Structures are given as structure tokens and as C-alpha cells.
Give the backbone structure.
Amino acid sequence: MLESAFMTRAMLAGVIVSLLLSVLGFFILLRKMSFIGVGIAHAAFGGVALGQLLGVPVLVSAAFFSVATGVGIGAVTRNGRIKEDTAIGIFFAAGMALGILFIYLKPGYSADIISYLFGSILAVTGADLWIIAIVSTLVLGLILLFFKELLASSFDAELARVSGIPERFLFYLLLGLVSLGIVVSIKIVGIVLVSALLVLPAATALQYSRRWLLVVFLAVLFGLIYTIGGLIASYWLDIPSGATIVILGTIIFLVSLLFSPVRRGGKSKVPT
Amino acid sequence: MSEPLVKFEGVTVKYGDVTALSNVNCEIFKATSTALLGPNGGGKTTFLKLVAGLVKPTGGKVSYHKLKRSRIGYVPQESDVDWQFPVTALDVVLMGRYPVLGLVRWPGKKDKAAALDICSEVGLLKVASRPVGTLSGGQKQRVAIARALAGRPELLLLDEPTSGADVKAKDQFYSLISYLKERLLLTVIIASHDLQVVPKFVDDVACVAGGVHMHSCPSDIWDEGHFQRLYGTEVEAVLHGKVPHRMVDVHRSERGKPEPAAGHGGKKSSKKGG
């Protein structure tokens, strides 16, 4: 299977992306912002379509759209003007609407847009792999740099602010990094399903431990299992890679939920 | 007289059209304890948040004398915390050390030892390694205090820390705060409806109801008329020695008069303020 150059690229990209999204998803889940991934990913559709219309690299235009959406959602909800779910619903729809408009304005049929919507392992080029690797290194580097501050501000934003942690900066930084993480992942799992890969690994890991270090480790492990397992299954069964990854992740999450040591053990038997 | 640690000069805070505090002038001195008393919505939490730097004055200024912001410990009334968060009690206490450590550097052995010492001081040592979500309400409150202490604060702000606690738990809590205040030379400001705190603990009382009136001697304020003006309801003092042990809302007590707390043994005043 790995003899195929495209599959090797897809596998490498999948490993990097699952590592990236699992770590980002840990913070997104702790902040109860799971739905924001859906909003950012769908806004990226507008960016992808704009890139195709203007003939500029779609990852660049998608990154611009996604970061603007992520930070925009954060800004309007943080100021208490509107609730987060309302803001996501509006930005989500606006991104999709712009995408549809740009596709309409572009002459000819945009077959490539489907690969962005649903993901395609065939779509990962050598250049894409480099971009994914560089952006992921940058994002993970910044996460590592601010990890303990992100942890503290995710636990209690107000206390973090009092103790001098730049909580507002970290909030917007996290949204920006999540946006970039989503953009570099959409070729693997697609715009429609990328938010699942953001949420599923950490959600599964939280069924096994209440210790943050172990949760992060397990989230990365589950992310890798979903992506590698999903890509292999999609290759052999000849079915869409993004859907296979998400279905595999959902099955493992549901099984974990049923047999969760954290939930089954109650308060006194939390694994150490 | 020494410089005040915190000084309010003509401080006003407005939330939109609502004035929470108006033209407040007061001083908080080092190594003193001050209770903020007053009705709900009177501005006690706003006062604490002003000191903590979480709220900016609409008018006037709050100044600090030789006090860094990072040396202020704050324990909020209702922490907007998800208690299923995957951290242990020790992890939370260590978070109080993060600002001291700076970027990149993680807590080392010394930091962990210091955090465990604080856990020991507040009676959390046995549960320090347990996930914070598995602790009782009182233990979580102690975790919040330990976290505040981990940053080695000079000033500790407590916002209604004993709401919902029973009499014994309140006694234990205030004894702990008294002990920590003396041992660590802390300046403490505590917002409370719990009038037990005043005779047992504080040096000063600030009555907060839109404005702030400082009383340097707690016993000065034990006048039912004063409390009726402050709380806007008829109150009756249940005496315990020289100072009231608690105040009772007369209207509520007529519907179902609460029994005095066990072991009071003090006389009950028959007068009603007016």
C-alpha cells in the first residue's frame, strides 16, 4: 500500500494532522468550544472557493477566511454581544454562502471543490505535505510554548487574568491556531468532517483519564489510530477516506463511552 | 501612619446605566483584614474585582503601594469552572505558580514541594493527588485558596467564600484564614453575608451598598438601625457577648422563626431596630 506515492503522502499528512488536531482538540474540549471547529471549517469553504476563483493558492485563502472567522466568532461572543452558538451559526452559513457565490462566479465546473468538501487522499501533493508539516510544526511549537498558560486559562479564565496570565491573547491565539490546524487538515478529512477529528480524539481520551498529561497522550494516540486506521480501511475498501476516519473514530468513541473507566468507576475509582 | 496597600480615590463603577459603586474613597492597610458587608447587588464583588484589576473604574482611581498585580490572590464567589476538568488538586495549586515561572519553564521539584506545603497548610495533603472533580465543595474551596496562596500573595481577596457551608465548616474556614493571615502576614479582604466573620476575624468593616463606609472597629457597627439602612430590611440582632452573632430578617422569621445555632448560649435581644 505504501508503495503508492500518494498513499505515503496521505499517510504522512494524516499522521501530522492527527497529532496537531488531537492536541488542539484537547483545549477546545476543555473550553467547551467543540462546535467552533464546525464554524471555522465551513467558513474555510468560502476561502477555498475564493482561491479557485482568483487563482491563488487555496490554502492561503482558506487560512485567511478561517482565521478571520475563528477570531471573529471569539470577538463577538467574548464581548457578550451574542452567544457562541448563534455566532457560529451565522459565520458558518456566511462562509458557505460566500463559497457557493464564488463557485457560481467561476467559469466552468469546479470538480476540485468536492475533494475539499469531503477530503481526498489523492489530493495531497508533495507541496501540500510540506505546507502541512511547516504549519503543524509552527502551531504545535506555539502550543508547547504556552501549554501551561493555555491549561490554566482553560481551567479558569478569570483567575488566570488575575494572576497575570495574558488570557485574552491566549484565547485569540488558540482560535487562530485551531483555524490553521483545520485548514491544513481539510484535504485529508474534508471541510464537512474535519471538526470531528478535532473533537473525537480528546473526547475519547477523556473517557479513560482525568489527568491532563495522560489525556493529551491518549488523545494523540486515538487520533493516530483513527487517521491511520481510517486511511488503511478506505484504501482497501475503496471508500472515502474522510468518512472512514470519522466513522472509525465514532465507533471507538462510542465503545469507550460504554466501557469508560472514568464513568464506570465513579468518583473514587478514577484511574491514576 | 504607613502608606495604605490599596487606596480608592473617588472611584465610581458603572455597568451601562447601572451604578455599582459611586465615589468610593477608602484605604486598605497592610496585614489587616477587612470584611465587606452589604446587600446583594451592593457592590461587594465589584469592589473586590476593582482591587484585583478585573474591573476598571469608570471614574477615580485605585492605586497600590509597593504591591505587584501578580501578588494579589483572588478566590471568586462562583468560579466558572468545569469540575470534570482533567486536573488533580495539586495541578490546580501549581497553576498559582505559573505566573512566577514565566514562559516555557515548567514547575520543578521546588515548586511542587512548595505547592504540597500549601496543601498541607490548608488541609489538602491527603487529597492533593486526586482529580479535583472528585473533591467535596469545602475541599474545592480550599483548593481555590491554596492556588491563590501558591503565587505568594500579599493581598488575598475572598468573595463570599462560605456561602452554602454549614456552621462548623464556616468556623473551620475562618479559623484557617485567621491562621494563614497571621502566619503569612497577609492582607485579607473578604466579602460576606456571614456576620459571624466580623466578631471572630476582621480588623475593619466596610459597609458596601453603592457607596463604601469604613468602620475601623467592628463593634462600632452593631446597631440594628445601621443594618436596616444597609440591607433595606428590618433586622433583629441575636446577641452573643458584645457583638451580634448573626442578624435575622424579621419578616422571614415571622413566617418560620429559625432556631439559634446550637451552642450559642448568648442572650437574644428583644428589641427591634427602627
User: Anything to note?
Assistant: The radius of gyration of chain A is 18 Å. The domain at 5-269 of chain A is CATH 1.10.3470.10 (ABC transporter involved in vitamin B12 uptake, BtuC). Residues 50 and 59 of chain A are 10 Å apart (CA to CA).
